[in-house]
Amino acid sequence: MASVHAHASGMGGIRTSGDLVARVMFQKKMKLPEAKKYVAEKLNVPVLSLTDEIVMRETREDLGLGTVFGGYGHAPKGIEAKFNIAKVLDININCVDKFIEKTGMKK
């Protein structure tokens, strides 16, 4: 856990893509380089752009993945952003699964 957190923080966390890479590392049991490549492909950006705050802010806003300060207009926040993250990265997020279960929604 400490190792993944250190890598995610070093990549800028939610300011860039560190949180997304960390989720993929846990969910898909990938090492850091493999997880970066996976996330970059899913976001349709070069791997080097994963740590660029400007590129990633625009990408996160476009895909509704949440940003540190929420974004402009009606940008997704909280559980809505997590639903989008789960869909874009093709991963399970526990709180999303619990929300679906408790509300009776279909995935």
Please tag this protein with its features.
single chain, 107 residues, mainly alpha, 6 helices, globular
Describe this structure in words.
The protein is mainly α. The protein is built from six helices and no strands.
Topology:
Layout: H1 2-10, H2 18-28, H3 32-43, H4 53-63, H5 78-89, H6 94-103
Helix pairs in contact: 1-2, 2-3
Structure at a glance:
The protein is 61% helix and 0% strand. It has helices spanning 2-10, 18-28, 32-43, 53-63, 78-89, 94-103.
Specify the number of helices: 6
Classification by helices and strands: mainly alpha
The value of Rg in angstroms is 13 Å
Low-confidence stretches: none
Strand tally, please?
A: 0
Shape: globular
Q: Mind summarizing the main beta sheet?
A: none
Helix fraction bin: 55-70%
Strand content: under 5%
The pLDDT mean sits at 86
Order of helices and strands: HHHHHH
Distance between the termini: 28 Å
